[in-house]
Specification:
- By secondary structure, the protein is of the alpha/beta class.
- The chain has a single domain, classed as DHBP synthase (Alpha-Beta Complex).
- The protein is built from seven helices and eleven strands.
- An eleven-stranded mixed sheet has the order 1-8-2-3-7-4-6-5-9-10-11, sandwiched between helices.
- A hairpin with a 7-residue loop joins β9 and β10.
Length: about 210
């Protein structure tokens, strides 16, 4: 039976030793809950096949995988970002949108094929998650804990979801997220903007009227 660990951190100035504890567990194959501007997401290392299988089993396997990246430089290694995409991402406030992009060969084929070669890029816009990504020096594969719901506190997680976690980076209650945008940059035509009611809403894009 897996041992669950909860690491409480200050939301603005997360303690380095707590971030390191989460990084170490992720390096050992853990699935973690991490705080973002879109609520708590479940995450694991991109190259951890067993952890990724556990994580994706809890979501809609037809949806593109989501990559939590530290910055644009890291994102460009795993997703194809041309000048058009770069400008769209640069001009968008971190945490307010996700970007649908084509995966590069650095994303394992078993994951890229889930979304037809596409992946969702998201920047967490939360100091604790950013600190964790700095330590790891690699993106995280992420999923909402539940389809159709935003989790702003770990106490909101149902028992079966908590049972699937190995560790939580607990930054307390998070602000209720506003509607997020999803910018579709997968196709070579001009970018299209969709209304993304929440990252947790099964990553479905509802086209704005």
């Amino acid at each position: 039976m897996r041992r669950f660990q909860r690491c409480e951190v200050h939301p603005d100035n997360p303690q380095a030793r707590m971030l390191q504890a989460v990084a170490d567990r992720l390096g050992s194959g853990a699935v973690a809950a991490v705080p973002t501007a879109a609520g708590y997401l479940m995450a694991c290392r991109l190259d951890d096949k067993a952890a990724a299988a556990r994580l994706l089993h809890r979501g809609d396997e037809r949806q593109p995988v989501m990559l939590l990246c530290r910055d644009l430089a890291q994102a460009a290694i795993h997703l194809q970002i041309d000048d058009r995409a770069f400008r769209a991402i640069r001009d968008t406030e971190a945490g307010s949108a996700a970007f649908l992009l084509r995966c590069t060969h650095r994303v394992p084929r078993r994951l890229a094929s889930v979304g037809g070669g596409a992946g969702l890029l998201y920047f967490s816009a939360h100091p604790a998650c950013q600190g964790l990504l700095q330590l790891l020096d690699e993106p995280l594969l992420a999923r909402p804990p539940l389809p159709g719901a935003v989790m702003t506190a770990l106490g909101q997680l149902p028992p079966d979801t908590r049972a699937a976690l190995d560790i939580a980076l607990d930054a307390g209650s998070l602000p209720e997220p506003q509607d997020l945008a999803c910018v579709e940059l997968f196709h070579p035509s001009r970018p299209s903007l969709a209304r993304w009611t929440a990252v947790a809403a099964r990553q479905e894009m509802h086209m704005a009227a």
